[in-house]
DNA-directed RNA polymerase (marine metagenome), 206 residues
Amino acid sequence: MPETAEATETVEITSKKPETMEKMGVEEMSEEAKIFSKNWSEIAKPKWLKFDESTIRSGYGKFILDPLEPGFGTTIGHALRRVLLSSIQGSSIFALQIEGVTHEFSNVSGVMEDVLQIILNIKELQIEQFVDGVVEMELIREGPCVITGRDISTFEKAKILNPNKVIATLQEGATISVILYTRFNKGYVSSEENQKFDLPVGTIYL
């Protein structure tokens, strides 16, 4: 395999035979044990892991693990994905208030999207939170304009990682005022669980 970019970190991987295989000689092993031993000894085992720093961008990085049996890359990838989604802490917007709106099935005058679509767009925002606890962010705009994640005021307590994400489109003379609440958590959290936070009346929980 050709060498990757210069900014590449390589980690060698060593594997060890099962303890039973080390203690038993080949002549002492049963047929089943010999088959097991053959399966283990002849399988392609990764010898090194490379991380290509030149590929780093928002939400992406290239790791090279080699060699692997056909299909094992997908198997390992799925396992890592499940761990990242279920076990790693992250931050996200879990509630919001839109001035003049009491529920998600409303409409905001002069805004092309309905509230439900605005909420769906907001849920796609990727947040990096710098402080623990509930962080309050603010979005105030006047039309005509296209509102994106870049328009959210985070007060240096968080950062929008996909600032070009479109949230809503305002027509001439239209205004919108939104308070967004974000916090750390992991895995899936229902809107019912989010309601345990004592937020003002009219808050919509995601």
Remarks:
- The CA atoms of residues 122 and 167 lie 6 Å apart.
- The first helix runs from residue 19 to 23.
- The two ends are 47 Å apart (CA to CA).
- DSSP finds five helices and eleven strands in the chain.
